[in-house]
Specification:
about 140 residues; alpha/beta; Immunoglobulin-like; four-stranded mixed sheet; about 25% helix; globular; binds copper (II) ion
Length: about 140
């Protein structure tokens, strides 16, 4: 009986240690859905609204079959002083739209990911260029 109680104690502390380790390994990364935070279905970002903190990489993954983009709204869509972001690395909404129109620039293929780290708190609105008309847009809220 004593031995069994002792073993149970070891198992208990081992699982507590493992939980602590996985917490450390996940530092700096949300990965709220396994290896990504926001999925891209046929015409939707899932979840549409996502909250994160400054300095943590946010990972989008194309979980559908169509090609998508992650493109920030440039004009008032991001906080003052925040870095513009778009898959393909374009530095403005216009550049991203033009690139898509002239050859699918910025496309994220099936199962591919796009990552961005937000350094300025606030609300960020973004969309998918080819599916904007279908309502494919999202919002990221970044806190300190
Ligand atoms: Cu799309």
């Amino acid at each position: 009986m004593k031995r069994r109680a002792f073993l149970a104690g070891i198992v208990g502390s081992a699982s507590a240690t493992l939980a602590g380790c996985s917490g450390i390994l996940n530092t700096g990364r949300n990965n709220t859905q396994g290896d990504f935070d926001i999925g891209m279905a046929s015409t939707a970002f899932l979840p549409r609204k996502f909250e994160t903190t400054v300095g943590e990489p946010v990972v989008w993954k194309n979980t559908g079959a169509r090609r998508h983009t992650v493109t920030a709204y440039g004009n008032g869509g991001i906080p003052d002083g925040a870095e513009y972001f778009a898959s393909g690395g374009y530095d403005s909404e216009k550049a991203a739209r033009d690139a898509w129109m002239s050859g699918s620039g910025g496309a994220i293929d099936q199962n591919r990911t796009y990552e961005h780290t937000f350094e300025v708190p606030g609300s960020y609105s973004y969309f998918c260029v080819p599916h904007e008309a279908s309502g494919m847009s999202g919002n990221i809220v970044v806190t300190e």
